[in-house]
Amino acid sequence: MTLDRFYPIFDDVNWLTRMLPLGVRLVQLRIKDGPDAELRQAVEQALALCRSHGAVLVVNDHWQLAIEVGCDWVHLGQEDLDTADLPAIRRAGMRLGVSTHDHAELDRALSLVPDYVALGPVYPTILKQMRWDQQGLERVTKWKRLVGSIPLVAIGGMSVERAAGAFAAGADIVSAVTDITLHADPEARVRAWIEATR
């Protein structure tokens, strides 16, 4: 299956309610913590919304919940890989995306035969504190050579204006967070993203 080239990440189902009707086809729900019942409700609601709009939902981190609810995709960071039951994820038929920041993490990710590899932060990001400096477009090109046919997601400091450069460097998919959520008109920004990536 071919994934859409635009991959927004949201921390609240309300964003999906707003953005899926605009034509978003690939979205990640990234809720770091909360009561189990609220997390389950959020994932169930997100999955129903995505199915009704023909979009792919990727659940960040909460792989057990994603399996129980019947999701198709999970995204794991390197720390998540330490504790996740990868055979159980595969037995459930789930597809897997993995975050990478350096060569050791990429080697680890590739050993799992993931369904996409994410590289970040390509540019400085305000989303979270990271011990990695910006990776730059040169590393995007290097990563694409190393991952081959596996889809490569560029994330971190991405904007509509930077998307073309990321694609030219070798990214298959560009992911955005604060470029949308902190924008004065998030809906207009998503429309601009869709126009720039299709």
From TrEMBL:
Record-linked CDD domains: TMP_TenI (cd00564)
Protein name, UniProt field: Thiamine-phosphate synthase
GO MF, any single term: thiamine-phosphate diphosphorylase activity
Catalytic activity of the protein: 4-methyl-5-(2-phosphooxyethyl)-thiazole + 4-amino-2-methyl-5-(diphosphooxymethyl)pyrimidine + H(+) = thiamine phosphate + diphosphate; 2-(2-carboxy-4-methylthiazol-5-yl)ethyl phosphate + 4-amino-2-methyl-5-(diphosphooxymethyl)pyrimidine + 2 H(+) = thiamine phosphate + CO2 + diphosphate; 2-[(2R,5Z)-2-carboxy-4-methylthiazol-5(2H)-ylidene]ethyl phosphate + 4-amino-2-methyl-5-(diphosphooxymethyl)pyrimidine + 2 H(+) = thiamine phosphate + CO2 + diphosphate
Keyword Magnesium tagged: yes
Residue ranges of domain Thiamine phosphate synthase/TenI in the record: 12-180
Enzyme class (EC, first level): transferase
Organism for this UniProt entry: Rubellimicrobium rubrum
Cofactor: Mg(2+)
Keyword Metal-binding: yes
Its EC number(s): 2.5.1.3
Keywords: Magnesium, Metal-binding, Thiamine biosynthesis, Transferase
Protein family (similarity comment): Belongs to the thiamine-phosphate synthase family.
